Amino acid sequence: MHLTVPGALIPLYLSVTRANQPFVTADGARQRIRERFERPVSFAPPRRLEGVAVQRRLPDPLGWPVYDVVPGTVGGRPSAPGGVVVYLHGGGWVHEIAPQHWRLIARIARETGHRVVVPIHPLLPRGTARPVRDGVLALMQEELAAGHTVRLAGDSSGGQIVLSAALQLRDEGTVLPATTLLSPALDLTWRNPRIDAVQPYDPWLARPGGAVLADAWRGTDSFEDPLVSPLFGDMAGLGPLTILTGTHDVLNPDAHLLRDKATAAGVEVTWHEEAGQVHVYALLPTAVGDRGARALVESLSAP
C-alpha cells in the first residue's frame, strides 16, 4: 500500500523543507552547486523496488553510472522485457536522482513491461548540456542498433535533456514512438513574461536561482541553441509528445508554448494540465499525482 497525502499539504512541506532555497535567489543556486560539488549525495536505488530487478552496468558505459530496471523476475532472474524506455531524472541539473524518481521508474517498468534505462548523468558543476545530451544519444543509439524500440521520458531538467535528444535523433533520421515530458524545462532564457503571473503561486521554483543554474548548465553553448533550450527547436517531424504540467509551476507557460508550437508543426501532442498542481506533481504521493503517474505510464505503454 502506498501512502497518499492531501495535496494541500505539499506546498507546506516544500516550505518547511526549504526545497525552494536553490531557486529563490542567485546566491542560493551558487551555494547549492558548491554543496553538491563538495558533498555529492547517493544516486543508488532504494533497496527494495516492488516488482522489478535493478542492475547497474559495469563498467560504467559512459563514465557515468547506468542502470537497467527490468520488470518482474522468472526463477530469480529478470524476465524478457518488451521495449525500452530511457528515463532522465530532474533536479535543476544540480540535484541527484531521488527515491520518488526510482519509484516512478519501477512503476513504468512494471506496468509497461519495458526495460527502463536510467543514466545517472553528471550534475553541475561537472556536467553541462552538450556532453550529457551526447551521452544520452550514445545510449539510445546502442539500444536502437540492437533492434529495440526506444521511448524517452524525463521530468523537469531531465525533460530538457530528453527533448533535446529527441530533436537531435529526428535530425539524424530516427523518429521515436513516444517522448513524455513531466514539467519540462524548455526555455533556459527564462524570458516568458507569463512566468511573473505564475510565480506567486509556485512554492518551489523561481527565476533568480533557476537562471543561475541554467547559465551554468549551458556551458559554452547559446541559450537559444535547441541543445540547451529545446523550445527554440523546429518541432516538425517529431514523434508523438506527451506533456504533463501543473498550473502552479513557473515552467507551465513554456509548456503551453511547446504544445502550441508542436501542434502547429503537425506533431501529435497529448496534453495533461492539472489546475493548482505544482512542479513534477506526478512524482508526488497525492491522488492527483497518482493520476498523473498513470497518464505518464500509459503514454509509454504501447508494445
- Summarize the amount of helix as a percent range: 25-40%
* Major beta sheet, strand line-up: 1-2-6-5-7-8-9-10
Order of helices and strands: HHHEEEEEHEHEHEHHEHEH
Any idea how many domains? 1
* Level-2 CATH architecture: 3-Layer(aba) Sandwich
- The CATH class assignment is Alpha Beta
Q: Measured on Cα atoms, how large is the radius of gyration?
A: 18 Å
User: Largest sheet, if any?
Assistant: 8 strands, mixed
Topology:
Blueprint: H1 9-16, H2 21-24, H3 26-38, E1 52-56, E2 66-71, E3 73-74, E4 77-78, E5 84-88, H4 99-112, E6 115-119, H5 129-145, E7 150-155, H6 157-171, E8 179-182, H7 195-198, H8 207-217, E9 241-246, H9 252-264, E10 269-274, H10 287-299
Parallel strand pairs: 5-6, 5-7, 7-8, 8-9, 9-10
Antiparallel strand pairs: 1-2, 2-6, 3-4
Helix pairs in contact: 3-8, 4-10, 5-6
How would you portray this structure in words?
The chain is of the alpha/beta class and 303 residues long. The chain has one domain (17-299): Rossmann fold (3-Layer(aba) Sandwich). It is built from ten helices and ten strands. The protein has helices spanning 9-16, 21-24, 26-38, 99-112, 129-145, 157-171, 195-198, 207-217, 252-264, 287-299; strands spanning 52-56, 66-71, 73-74, 77-78, 84-88, 115-119, 150-155, 179-182, 241-246, 269-274. An eight-stranded mixed beta sheet has the order 1-2-6-5-7-8-9-10, sandwiched between helices. Strands 3-4 form a two-stranded antiparallel sheet. Helix 3 crosses helix 8 (207-217) and helix 4 packs across helix 10 (287-299).
What are its keywords?
single chain; 303 residues; alpha/beta; Rossmann fold; 8-stranded mixed sheet; 10 strands; 16% strand
